[in-house]
Amino acid sequence: MYVAVKGGETAIAHSLDLLADKRRGDRGVAELTLEQIGQQLGLAVDRVMTEGSCYDRSLAALAIKQARGDLIEAIFLLRAYRTTLPRFGDSLPLDTGAMVAERRISSTFKDVPGGQVLGPTYDYTHRLLDFSLAADGERPAAPTAPADTNRTLPRVGDILEREGMLEPPPQGLQSDGASEDLTRQPLTLPASRPVRLQNLARGDEGFLLALGYSTQRGYGNNHPFVGEIRYGHVPVAFVPEELGFAIEIAEIDVTECEMVNQFAGSHDVPPQFTRGYGLAFGHSERKAMSMALVDRALRAEELSESATSPAQDEEFVLAHSDNVEASGFVQHLKLPHYVDFQSELVVVRALRAEVEARHRQAALDQAAE
Amino acid sequence: MTENNAKDGAYNYAYLDEQTKRMIRRAILKAVAVPGYQVPFGGREMPLPYGWGTGGIQVTAAIIGRDDTLKVIDQGADDTTNAVSIRRFFANVAEVATTTRTEEATVIQTRHRVPETPLGEGQILVFQVPIPEPLRMLEPRETETRTLHALSEYGVMQVSLYESIARHGRISKGYNYPVMVNGRYIMSPSPIPKFDNPKLDRSPALQLYGAGREKRIYAVPPYTPVKSLDFDDHPFEIETWQQCCELCGSKDSFLDEMIVDDDGKRLFVCSDTDYCERRRTPAEAAE
Amino acid sequence: MTDLSTLGPGLADPSHDAQQLFRAILDATSHPGRIVSLPAAPAGPGTLSAAATAYLLTLADRDTPVWLAEPFDQPEVGNFLRFHAGALIVTQRAQAAFGVLAATTPSPFNDFDLGTDAYPDRSATLIVDVPGLTGGTMRRWRGPGIDDHTDIAVAGLADMFWHDWAANHGLFPCGVDIVFTAGIELCALPRSIAVEG
Q1: Residue A39: inside a domain, yes or no?
Q2: Residues A116, A244: one domain?
């Protein structure tokens, strides 16, 4: 006896309960606090803030907790919250030259003004599981020099630029001084560089990593050098209309990467190095570097290079970088599609019937001969 | 979590902020003024995933008010999980009355079907659209397809349909069957079965189409000609079934096929649950 | 500076009033020629009708520059729209998303953004404040949203206006869209509509 599929409402309610239960896990184990996530899973928080385009450590930690550590789900949660927030205006551009850096390296010079600062990095760890972490091994605090907040760190790129070896940074704002915002306006192609950078900054780290990697393997290579990577704290300044002057409203952590890339020059332009730029919230070097590689690759047309590789294809990259969009659309295949499938069944059955009829007729014709 | 937030005023009426609603409303009016043309709009991130109806939800959120009665269907059914989820969202954030009865609804949000009960003046049918561009599977680049629409250069679609005839002897497209709107724009009717295409033609209801991930809105105003593409020697035709609905006996509704035992026994029932139920209620069936 | 003391009120209940007004406007736009009434429309500033005011309060904001024709190009109208809608008032027709015109404004469509073949949605919308939506010369409208035809007699428009409209309609899918407003009533004429007679 057939019973019509009913009770979607109840099924959903039960599913939500089961999910909440799964999230909590064994009640005998202490519940995670947002502080623990913020402090001890800090890089996960950084990624969620970056791709969620919302700088708020506790909200990102909450999203990670709610998503049971599924970072793309957490990014989605944070984005959906962000979109409901009122907008007060645009901050002034960050001055990363005024960064109080915890880490700063350049691979293009042995030493640079301000020095190479290794800071906290996994780069030189030996990837051996540290079983002492499995127990409650408390660590003594690391010795640190007091931060030199008076010193500015000149950018390596600016030094090269003064010599004419590196192109000046491209203009960021529109001619009328307004900034474009992909979360308020639809993407139109070709996109301006600021829009591309916004798209890449929100883009999936894995997608950008793979694309950046592909440029290194010859799919749009432009011979990158790490001009500089810096990570640290920068102030955010805002000019309230009623005050008319800038006030500091926050201090945030960012990772900035400037790639220096070869450019062969052309008939009119002497050879010169070109820039690829990456910026991420918190400490996210893999993301910032991948972004810088892809940014430079996307400038192929502007620099009159042949653009034949995936990473150089603006429409391909920008349309597929967003993991919230991609995850939703891939997973929507879980939704019922039985009506469309039914109309395909009808079509395919009819086509098969025609072919079978032809075969039968052919067999009859043959037998008759 | 969001359940109580909406009523506590943590979110604006119908979830979207007023500026976003204005932006979407302007896009809807442009879409109505240029039937079948896909208007780009600043689609927002919604609390439901992309691909699960965010475009339709944004359109509904921009038009819906406290006087409305909302019906939500997925695959023609009011009680599929996604339909339930979206209906619950609006009952919660827009304090709106909901119904399963097609003729009682002022706004119907749908995925993959047009109701069997004919729609009337004043009703608005909101389609959830995954891929708004009818030429997308023939030309993946937005920059190219935009030019093709601008120039009314639709040869690529004609060729594709013709190739299907050459290979199969007929147009082998079951759903998302392309239409020409008011003689100007080729439009994707969203993945409805072609069975529903004739219902779009000169419908007295307003049709709004929302694609959230692709950030496009398009529309077909009432009484607008909507022609399914075909050829003189291969006219457009809809799906037919040998069977009738097992539950209500309908011979002219779209049927879902179900496998009911391990031997693959099939059973056919109406996809439109409201239509089917009403036919089974004696008082209403007698009308 | 805006003198707030002389400023009339905007929408009493911004979210719900705007929703109701929009639905009336959508009804009008999807049924060209249908005259809809806007009971929630607040009294307009200066000589601007309540319906034109309601249309702008519902749809205009800081993203949509407004151009005002001569009878409406007064401080009280501009201040009202700046304050209640956050709209930017511009002096060039080409910059405007919305143009506010009188029935007698000369060369009504000239210089407004007509959109492009690739982006016809970028054209301007003109709000034409007329003496009445009935009582003028009867004309036959045909096109999307109309069941075959409808006969409309918008008052106060010269024959030249309809001559210009024919040219605008000929640009489809480009071209401006129009809403006629009078008192608390409104009637829409999208670019898709052909007008005979």
Answers
A1: yes
A2: yes
In a domain, A252, yes or no: yes
**A347: domain range?**
338-369
Q: Chain B: nearest CA to A305, how far in angstroms?
A: 20
B199: helix, coil or strand? helix
A56 plus A116 within the same structural domain: no
In this prediction, the answer to ipTM > 0.90 reads: yes
Cβ atoms of residues C130 and C154 within 8 Å: yes
Q: Which of residues 91-150 of B touch A (CB under 8 A)?
A: 111-113, 130, 141-143
C110: helix, strand or coil: coil
Q: In which residue ranges of chain B is pLDDT below 50?
A: 1-6
Q: Please name the residues in contact with A7: beta carbons below 8 A apart, sequence gap of 6 or more.
A: B79
Q: A297 with A220: CB under 8 angstroms? A: yes
Bridge partners (DSSP) listed for residue C162:
none
Residue A176 has pLDDT above 70, yes or no: no
**Which residues neighbour A5 within 8 Å (Cβ) at sequence distance 6 or greater?**
B77, B79, B80
Q: Looking at the structure, do residues A192 and A281 belong to the same domain, yes or no?
A: yes
pLDDT band (50, 70, 90) for residue A114: confident
Q: What is the CATH number of domain C13-196?
A: 3.40.50.11310
Are both A198 and A301 inside the same structural domain? Answer: yes
Examine residue A333 and state whether it is found in any structural domain, yes or no: no
Identify residue A255 by its one-letter amino acid code: T
Written as six digits, the tokens of B49 are 């995933």
Q: In three state form, how does the secondary structure of chain A look?
A: CCCCCCCHHHHHHHHHHHHHHHHHCCCCCCCCCHHHHHHHCHHHHHHHHHHCCCCCHHHHHHHHHHCCCCHHHHHHHHHHHHCCCCCCCCCCCCCHHHCEEEEEECCCCCCCCCCCECCCCCCCCCCCCCHHHCCCCCCCCCCCCCCCCCCCCCCHHHHHHHCCCECCCCCCCCCCCCCCCCCCCCCCCCCCHHHHHHHHHHCCHHHHHHHHHHHHCCCCCCCEEEEEEEEEEEEEEECCCCCCCCEEEEEEEEEEEEEEECCCCCCCCCCCEEEEEEEEECCCHHHHHHHHHHHHHHCCCCCCCCCCCHHHCHHHHHHHCCHHHHHHHHHHHHCCCHHHHHHHHHHHHHHHHHHHHHHHHHHHHHHHC
What is the predicted pLDDT for the residue at B8? 54
Catalytic-residue membership of B276: yes
Burial bucket for residue C196 (CB in 10 Å: 0-12, 13-18, 19+): exposed
> Is the CB of residue C61 less than 8 Å away from at least one CB of chain B?
yes
Tokens standing for A146? 């007091």
Residues A52 and A102 in one domain: no
Chain segment A226-258, per-residue pLDDT in tens: 999 999 999 999 998 788 899 999 999 999 999
Maximum pairwise Cα distance, chain C: 51
**Orientation of helix A42-51 relative to helix A71-82, angle to 10°:** 50
Dihedral sign computed on CA atoms, order A216, A221, A223, A228: negative
Same domain, A56 and A113: no
Q: Give yes or no for a contact between C135 and C83, defined as CB atoms under 8 angstroms apart.
A: no
Whether residue A134 is contained in a domain is answered as: no
The burial class, CB within 10 Å (0-12 / 13-18 / 19+), for A4 is middle
Query: Of A82, A107, A132, which closes a domain?
Result: A82
Assigned token pair, C118: 């690739």
Q: Where are the domains of chain B?
A: 2-132+176-227, 240-287
Classify domain B2-132+176-227 by CATH number.
Answer: 3.40.50.11310
- Residue A325, chain B, CB below 8 Å: the answer is yes
Query: Which pair of tokens denotes residue A161?
Result: 């630029």
Note which residues in 152-181 of chain C have CB less than 8 A from chain B. Answer: 172-173, 177
C120 touches chain B (CB under 8 A): yes
Q: Is the pLDDT of residue A5 over 50?
A: no
CB B15 within 8 A of CB A83: no
